[in-house]
Automatic annotation (TrEMBL):
The gene is cysG. It holds the Pfam family NAD_binding_7. This is Siroheme synthase. Residues 150-206 form the Sirohaem synthase dimerisation domain. It comes from Nereida ignava. The active site is at D250, K272. It comes from the Bacteria. Residues 222-429 form the Tetrapyrrole methylase domain. One of its GO terms (molecular function) is sirohydrochlorin ferrochelatase activity. Keywords: Cobalamin biosynthesis, Lyase, Methyltransferase, Multifunctional enzyme, NAD, Oxidoreductase, Porphyrin biosynthesis, S-adenosyl-L-methionine, Transferase.
Amino acid sequence: MKHFPIFVAVEGRRIVLSGGGEEALAKLRLLLKTEANLTVVAENAAPEIRAWAQEGRLTLISRAMEPGDAMCAVLFYAANGDDAEDARVAALAHRDGARVNMVDNLHGSQFITPAIVDRDPVTIAIGTEGAAPVLARAIKADLEAKLPASLGVLARIGKSFRSAVEALPMGRKRRDFWSEYYFNKGPQAIEEDGENGVQSALKNLLDTYLTDTREKAGHVDLVGAGPGDPDLLTLKARKALDKADVVIYDRLVSAEILELARREAVMIDAGKEGFGKAMSQSEINDLIVSHAKDGHQVVRLKSGDPTVFGRLDEEIDACDAADVSWRIVPGITAASAAVAGIGQSLTKRDRNGSVRFITGHDMKGYADHDWRALSRAGEVAAIYMGKRAARFVQGRLLMHGAHPETPITVVENVSRVEQRTLTCRLGTLSDDLETANLTGPALMLLGLAPRAALQVAQDISIQEVAQ
Ligand code: SAH
């Protein structure tokens, strides 16, 4: 980050702008939204600027800039549309101690003005450090369309209630009050009675919260984080992260997804390694239950889908035993994202009418399965935690008569930028894996080859048949 976004206090302070043409007008339209004392210094000011001066919205000095004009200004804009003049006035403003922006000159500027979505007092600033103004404009348009125009009204009225709301205890209850206001009662009141209805709706809501002295019980959401790409998170998962007081997450949950948790949430790493353990399951259960018992919203965040090799039932049992309410929020399991990545289906007519999710190892070591069934041609299985068990899996399948040419695709870091796909054959699986030296989580797809490779293989066999 070369520029750090901040909001500058400008109410009642001086902002000075030098220039009277197009560049000046563009900036002034923005600056007029502020409560600053605006001064424009311009030899030839556009009619709009003169009109604003007449309306008392800014002070116009009708001459070229002189030393001292930017004295006591918090911000200064050089907006003459003329490089030489901008350089001259910027130097003067520097000497007057103002922070300087030169329009369309990133290097000459001490600050830059972002694209702004204005729902005063809610202001969203979008910056690309000058790299992609088009992108900033697209994001702005997107947000403008998404954010209801009433947001500003709700925030303004909400602000006037802040001290009254201090009667509510800090923390959960107060947060619940505000989110009920902003996302439910507030918009509803505007819809039904317009701005005038908001005040009384807010007062009624506060009375309800003040008279209800019951402590809210904690709750546990058992949430699937998907395989890593934040775009593969469900909306339910995002909402749960938004209101979490405590997030207890596993090792495989990606950093980008952890970023999405509420800023104040306590983040606890319960990371478990393959064969060894960082925190025992019973410690994790205790942690989940004790935070919920304290009245917190707990998100137990697991990679992929929590119901797949997630030891979910033990955590649910712990919640039940402690009389804590819980809910499962499903996620996209690694197998679903992995097959999507190689353009294949998990099931396919005339190939396999069932698919197995199996684990390479369990708590006792390498896991046993119905190897005979898995060895049949056309079988498809997603093998989780299979990296270190590859030689074992390979041996068992070959022993039970699987063809050494059976395709196995290993997808590492599914859905992440580092995603890597290895196209292997059963006969050489463990050697291939050793050579590849995978470091991230990997899923093996028994019986599936990437679609393009499959195409090539089929083409070859067609040629062979034709010869
Ligand atoms: N609940 C998870 C699975 C947890 S078991 C799910 O539904 O995906 C952990 C195993 O899942 C890892 O050893 C690996 O085999 C697989 N896995 C999880 N995330 C993965 C990812 N991003 N890429 C590849 N494999 C992954």
